[in-house]
Amino acid sequence: MKTGLLTVAVALSIWAVETAWAVSPTAAELAEARLWAAARFAGVQLAEPPQGEAASGAEPFFSFTYDGRPSVEALKTWEFQRESRPGGARQTQHTLAWTDPKTGLVLRCVGIEYADFPTVEWTLFFRNPGARKTPILADIRALDIRVERGPAPNREGASSEFRLHHHVGSPCTAEDYRPLETVLKPGMTKRIAAAGGRPTNSDLSYFNLQRSGGDGLIVVVGWPGQWAAEFVGEDESRVRIRAGQELTRLKLLPGEEIRTPRIVLQFWKGDRLRSQNLWRRWMLAHNVPRLGGQLPPLILSASSSYYYEIMYRADAASQKMFFDRYLEEGMKLDYWWMDAGWYPCDPVGWPKTGTWEVDRRRFPKGLREISDYVQARGAKTIVWFEPERVRADTALAQEHPEWILGGSQGGVLNLGNPDAWTWLVDHIDKLLVEEGIGLYRQDFNIDPLAKWRANDAPDRQGMTEIKHVVGYLAFWDELRRRHPDMLIDTCSSGGRRNDLETLKRAIPLLRSDYLTPGIAQQCQTYGIASWMPYFGMPLQDVWDNLYLLRSGLCPELTLRFDMRKRERDFSLARRLVDHWRQFGRSYLGDYYPLTPYTLDANVWMAWQFDCPESGEGLVQAFRREQSGDESARLKLYGLEPEAVYTLTDLDVPGATRMTGRELTQDGLSIAIKDRPGAAIVTYAKRS
């Protein structure tokens, strides 16, 4: 077996060289992931466990209790089968199945091993094929492993501690997406969890555990519900990681099946910034939704919703007028965005959700009139929905209170109810077709956890959440099946549902509801880009301030300018859009922070996006309001030392040339006279 693994490692090393990526998986990284999969998925008995694994290959990498017995004991007496077969592109699917001979409970672990990345993932499924309820199944942790500290550091200044890198979620504060670091000391437990049932409401469910010796493990929990993760410093040399749905204590009914969160591990060695770019590349290669096999394009959208905040005042004429004004000002749009309020909601306003029909008083010809209008001018429509939140005195609450967790008084549409799910799929599909909607936008402005848990019996705790999550994901899967050329936008009071399962199906066009321009927007990009390569943010009526405009640049831009004011000079905004069209694809390249994260106003903040395949990239730098420094020297990353790069400051005529070695060792000097001010420098490798 050792010979076979060596052959695999050599083949993978050749592939890595042939790709010529600046951020390529190394042979050692790929081999470590293969070893992990061989031991855990394929059942290969290794002489030693994969590097960093404290547990033997025979011990499961998850845990639960069943009828009061811990899984590590119970599974020893269960019947076991395994199967491996080719999966999707450069994937192998492994299925491990255990059957309890006493009760018939079947546990399946469906794992994916990636050939092109040092990445493995899995999901657990529990099924009751019998005619009776099962005993209590509880404390299901889809991930339960121990990680060794690794070899002693071999370089000066290297840490011998475990360092957990994690991020704030999107709770709508100035600190949205802030990067955090926790040193895991012996005896210490760091517990991080979702809040209120929305997965990135308080914290992101993405983690990077850095070990001594220059390597680490990315751990991600994909669950659009209430997840929890614990990182326990058991002693000086070992950390235990447990993660899964926060609360499970339930019996399965005859014929019933449940699933767990998706768990992803990505192995890395060397530099941590490089490891985040390995993750970004894996996201782009295997997760970000595609159109016609291609990654989403740059999207420029616009909306009048900021000025018609109570959207029942909008009508077809106002939407056409706003759209036309952007074209008149030379800003050609890809999408026209109609946010909340196109349904009957007067006099309460847009939050009165639950009657998903077009308000024919304001839109007598439906939204199709607007869709056809913008399509004839080269754009499509984005339309906002929020089907999971149902207000009292709306159609759903009145006609189908049995579908609502909260009944006729309103609450959460129960997507675990088959009748409710079928109605929702067919009704939304009908609206998409009849109204000519080009992009489906789904919001979620309610914390569902209390409703979910109140609906559970004592012996069914966690079941309503599971069924809702499964229904939500199946709803989007069915919409994508029926509309393969349509993107979905995920929104949950901004970015509060940006877990991995959601981002495999949708893109977040509104990363946060904290919309204050300037420093907060810079910090959001700084943080979110480590994990999510495609995201968007609106520019909130800052048409005449280049610093604020540049602070909000993203792969997707939404313009929210008051186009009724014809006296305004939109030349800066037009210039910004023109430049963004030229360099915007660089946002999907490798991401490197060039300065520390801070909300302070007396410093510079800067980052780099690099596309080594094309030899292009960009640097964004911001001199904040109270910074006394008129210039900064920034050392770049990822460039070829001997290559010559042509650099263009978008605010300075002409161009300069520097070698990759000069840019990475000496640094790029950028001067900004204005305070505050923002600079963008693009670069391209000379052929």
Structural summary, described in words:
The protein has 687 residues and is of the alpha+beta class. The chain folds into 3 domains: 2-286, Beta-galactosidase, Chain A, domain 5 (Distorted Sandwich); 301-387 and 418-445 and 487-584, Alpha-Beta Barrel (TIM Barrel), CATH 3.20.20; 588-685, Immunoglobulin-like. Strand 14 (227-235) and strand 15 form a beta hairpin.
Keywords:
687 residues, alpha+beta, Beta-galactosidase, Chain A, domain 5, TIM Barrel, Immunoglobulin-like, 3 domains, ten-stranded antiparallel beta sheet, seven-stranded parallel beta sheet, 15 helices, 37 strands, 30% strand, globular, disordered N terminus
Q: Taking Cα atoms only, what radius of gyration do you get, to the nearest Å?
A: 26 Å
Q: At CATH's second level, what is the architecture of the largest domain?
A: Distorted Sandwich
Find the structural class using helix and strand composition: alpha+beta
Mean of pLDDT:
92
Overall 3D shape? globular
> Distance between the terminal alpha carbons, to the nearest Å?
45 Å
**Beta-strand residue fraction:** 25-35%
CATH class wording of the largest domain: Mainly Beta
Number of helices: 15
DSSP helix fraction: 10-25%
In the CATH hierarchy, the third-tier topology of the largest domain is known as Beta-galactosidase, Chain A, domain 5
Largest sheet: 10 strands, antiparallel
Could you say how many structural domains there are in total?
A: 3
- Number-wise, the strands total 37
Name the quaternary structure: single chain
Low-confidence segments: 1-21, 54-58
